[in-house]
Amino acid sequence: MDALYGRDFNLVNVDDKVLQHIDDLFGPMSIDTVKQTIHFARLDTIATKEGHNIFVTEKNLEKWAFPTCSFNGVDNGLSDIATSYRTDQVFSKASAAHYLMLRNEEFGHQDSLIGSTAHESVFPGLRIFLDELDRNASLDKPRPPAWSRELQGADKQSTAKLPREFEIPWCGPVLIPSNDGQNVRILTGSDPVFGEHTAQLFIPLYRDKENADQPCLDESCTYLIAMASDPEDTEKLPDNFIRSRPQGDGITICEIPTEAFREDDNYLGLLVLIYYGKIPAIANIYDLIRDGVMSFLETSKKTQLWKDALITWQPSSDNEEISIAFGSCQYPAGLMDGELAYRSWKSLGIALSEKRETPKADMLLLMGDQVYVDATAGLFDPQSVDERYQWPYKKLYSNRHVRKVLRQLPIYCMLDDHEIDNNWGPLDTSHETSRIECNDRLKDMGVDAFLTYQRGIDPVTWRTSHNGKTPLWYDFEHNGFRFFMMDTRTNRSPRCAATIDDKETTLISEEQLADFTEWLDGYVEWLKENGSQKPAFVISPSILFPRHQVASGDLPASALNADGWDGYPQSLKKIVQMVADKGCSNLVFLSGDEHLSCKATISIDVDGEPACKILSIHCSGLYAPLPFANSRPEDLIEQESWSFEADGRKYSCKIKTDFCEDIQGFGILHGKGPAENLLFSSITTTPENTGETSSDH
């Protein structure tokens, strides 16, 4: 127990006879109890076994009106004595109850109850407290015993944890543009310590004219307020009220118009605050928010806490130049590698904050494995839905380096296997029904979490609007450039050695292929109408090219050794055929998953005549600390000529790959003009960051 919790009791205070029967006192160990204490430590408050604080809230403590006594061992190796003082401060703020603390100098934790002298040194104080209550049932301020004294001076720490009415989000904010670009979904998480929140506020901040380093409100204190339900005493909501979509456990999604992000030289950004207080009558909300926000800004001047919740992104219109940050595969941090695990995010945050002559990234593509719900490959992975599929996202979005980036860039995401389970794929009917059902449940839970945390979409609403299905692929435009996000994980079909080369064994479904074909036709038509050379981008978590060595054998079954497009030969041929037939020479495929960076140029001929040239760019993992899980250049075919026949025509591909071992973490793709002009580089090796020669590819 000491290894799990700390020092449960001080041995010097416990008799040998008690130690011989210690199992009778503590009983069998419960793994759920162990997990619950982890939540205590993680949240700094009492929580349920799922990690939710439904107990220590201001609303609950208002009902706690009876006298309360605690007894605490000073020589405590499990619960710090400061906890009792923090409890005192919390009670003082939120409860009318009298809180009495009894301080026991020479005791630890459990020995305050089972120690050999506890009956002489601890119990008398408790008896006096209870006797005084018995003598006077209405007594609300029992006198402390003479032998108990309060800790004075520096030892008493001011650590009250109940919130002010306005606090910054505990995780997020995360910017997720809608597909049409007219609105932005903003995901925030309230602090589990503070319990349920009431509303989200979005307030434009400007530079103070007298002090440019400090923020101020505009003259009319413009704001948007998002609530899950209507305020009382109102028949019609004002225009600045929007409906929020609570997702449970403090996670909320709000959709606001892009017009909320101002275009003004003095505009600093959009401040996001969580409101925990009571909502007054609608006529009084303005005064509450104005005074509360001004008070928040005043108290956070020195710490500049407001910067941690300030969205500085501004929408931009069509542009001839593009600058994309992209990456995948963020393995979670352990006990010792917190800073190392998020170094990629830290580097990107620094790059976004620097003054640079070249354009900074104005969007972020996350191409799969943003979280690992299976970090220990099933050995110690949690089984509950909350711990397995929700906490990884909360841990990611509450990291300070991640938050800094996500306040500055909108994100477009696609999932891969580790959002569900390692190498997840559908099972065919030859497997046991129970195993198929379990496999499908993993997918459903992973997809629900992905929709909520990476797409800002309510899973129930999404399924209802799509007749129970969850199509995850989508297309969008950003600054005049077209993107198609492919789902190469949940939309694939089962495969085995006997069916690997069948036309029905596909990486993407016929429905997704039809949508991609329609998107591609629209792009080709747009190029012709506008005489443009703008590239278009296809985001595929699975790598298109280069192919894997182990999947290129003479027998079709060798494809089972690969998890990418070459693992589904018919799908790879279909995509190449489609692109070649339409002559799409400005198409760029972006992918992740292999944990290395490379750039492949694919020249495609049809019946000996040049048809098109496309690019396949692959980015390394954001944090991939396990060498056995990382591909090496020799695992992939650097140069090859590959051909196939389809519909009576011969399609020949010449693939030349450059491996970019200097690009680690996030990659940057920037440039203008046709696809061949795009430069693939690292955020840490560009001239603006190092003063050295650029390592563009």
Estimated helix fraction: 25-40%
Termini, distance in Å? 55 Å
> Which shape, going by the Cα principal axes?
globular
Mean pLDDT: 85
The strand count comes to 26
* Parts with pLDDT < 50 across at least 5 consecutive residues: 144-162, 685-694
Nearest-angstrom radius of gyration?
30 Å
Number of helices: 19
Task: Report the structural category.
Answer: alpha/beta
Biggest pleated-sheet summary? 10 strands, mixed
Q: Strand percentage, roughly?
A: 15-25%
Task: Offer a few descriptive terms.
697 residues; alpha/beta; ten-stranded mixed β-sheet; eight-stranded mixed β-sheet; 19 helices; 26% helix; globular
Write a brief structural summary.
The protein is α/β, with parallel strands linked by helices and 697 residues long.
Report what the structure shows.
This protein is an alpha/beta fold. The chain is 26% helix and 22% strand. It contains 19 helices and 26 strands. The longest helix has 21 residues, at 433-453.
List the helices and strands and how they pair.
Elements: H1 2-5, H2 16-20, H3 22-26, H4 31-43, H5 58-61, E1 68-73, H6 82-94, E2 99-104, H7 111-114, H8 118-121, H9 123-135, E3 166-167, E4 171-177, E5 183-189, E6 199-207, E7 215-216, E8 224-227, E9 241-248, E10 251-257, E11 267-275, H10 285-299, E12 310-311, E13 321-330, H11 338-341, H12 343-353, E14 363-366, H13 385-397, H14 400-406, E15 411-413, H15 433-453, H16 459-465, E16 474-478, E17 481-485, H17 510-530, E18 536-539, H18 569-582, E19 587-591, E20 598-606, E21 609-618, E22 621-623, E23 639-646, E24 649-659, E25 667-672, E26 679-682, H19 687-690
Parallel strand pairs: 1-2, 8-9, 13-14, 13-22, 14-15, 17-18, 18-19, 19-21
Antiparallel strand pairs: 3-11, 4-5, 5-10, 6-7, 6-8, 6-11, 9-10, 11-12, 13-25, 16-17, 20-21, 20-24, 23-24, 25-26
Helix pairs in contact: 12-14, 13-15
